[in-house]
# Entry
Amino acid sequence: QVQLVESGGGLVQAGGSLRLSCASSARTFNDMGWFRQAPGKEREFVAAISWNGGNTYYADSVKGRFTVSRDNAKKMVSLQMNSLKPEDTAVYYCNVNPPISYYWGQGTQVTVSS
# Structure
């Protein structure tokens, strides 16, 4: 059973930055993704990174502001979020990509104040 644990969320003012981390217990390297769910909305894709870090993908809404990276030796995936906007407020989750339903963790809350 793979466990994914997100951390690094918090409260930040608009224009600020946060760095999210995801620790994985998986024994193999998978394509990984970040997803988010805002209150009253469906969970949506944010960013993804291939198993070796060679390819990255971003939702249009975060392109140019967010950067996904990984350290396979540490089994960590990170999401650097810059120039945050109030509309980035959500619970952020990591998962394999495409996501597997029973891998969802608790997520980490990101709140951006205006």
Observations:
- The chain has no helices and ten strands.
- The mean pLDDT is 96.
- Residues 13 and 74 are 30 Å apart (CA to CA).
- The longest strand covers residues 18-24.
